[in-house]
Amino acid sequence: MTGLSRMAVLDACQYLDSWFAFQQRQLRVPGVQVAILHDDEVLLDAAYGMSDVVTGEPLTTEHVFR
After folding, report:
1. I need a surface site. Which of 4, 9, 17, 66 has the fewest CB within 10 A?
2. What's the pLDDT at 43?
3. From the centroid of its chain, how far is CA 53?
4. CA distances in angstroms from 66 to 1, 32, 63, listed in the order given
């Protein structure tokens, strides 16, 4: 238990979704992948940008990193 309600974390996730997208573009990072877990439930699972800058392939939540 984190002490935060599910609704509070969901509200934060709505903001964070747009914040991560903005930061990825602003900082010119090729790709960013994020997941937020709360009480064993994934509340945000998102990917922004590209997985391959040469081909322009979009980054997805299915991509696996080392």
Report:
1. 66
2. 97
3. 19
4. 28, 14, 10
Res 65: pLDDT: 83
| pLDDT tens across the length of the chain (66 residues) | 558 999 999 999 999 999 999 999 999 999 999 999 999 999 999 999 999 999 999 999 999 987
Q: For residue 58, give the nearest of 35, 25, 31, 24 by alpha carbon.
A: 31
What DSSP designation does 29 have?
-
* Phi-psi domain of 37 (left: phi exceeds 0; alpha: psi -120 through 50; beta: other): beta
DSSP assignment, residue 5?
-
Kindly state the helix (H) or strand (E) to which residue 36 belongs, with its residue range: strand 31-38
